[in-house]
Amino acid sequence: MMEENINSIESLIERVTDYGKTSIELAKLKALDQMSHVTSSLLSNGVVLVIVSLFAIFLNFGLALWIGHMLGEIYYGFFVVAGFFGMMAIVVYFFMRKWIKRTVGNSLIKQVLK
User: Which of 38, 55, 67, 70 is deepest in the core (most CB within 10 A)?
Assistant: First the structure.
């Protein structure tokens, strides 16, 4: 009888140990899955951001050259475009900074908890 209890306790300890190892392995795999999902999302969004940024840069150069040509001096066009972006930066800083921060934070949290 005593030997049966010892065997069942050893069996129980072995099962608990296996369960613990399996739970740890499962947690590692879930973390790896989330990390790979977030990394791939950031990478793909980064590539899109680079392409859109290049488009915007060339568009702004063209716009600055065109405005400069219309005003008579090329550098006037660059001043006008720079002034426009300066005004946009001020508006974003004072009126939209908190909204952008909250939106990006919520998006990142949503991706991590997905």
Answer: 67
Give the tens place of pLDDT for each residue, 51-104: 999 999 999 999 999 999 999 999 999 999 999 999 999 998 888 888 888 888
Report the alpha-carbon distance of residue 78 to residue 106 in Å, rounded: 36
* pTM of the full structure: 0.62
d(CA 26, CA 15): 16
- Note whether 77 and 66 are within 8 A (CB): yes
Rounded CA separation 60/54 (Å): 10
Note whether 100 and 91 are within 8 A (CB): no
Q: Is 72 helix (H, G, I), strand (E, B) or coil?
A: coil
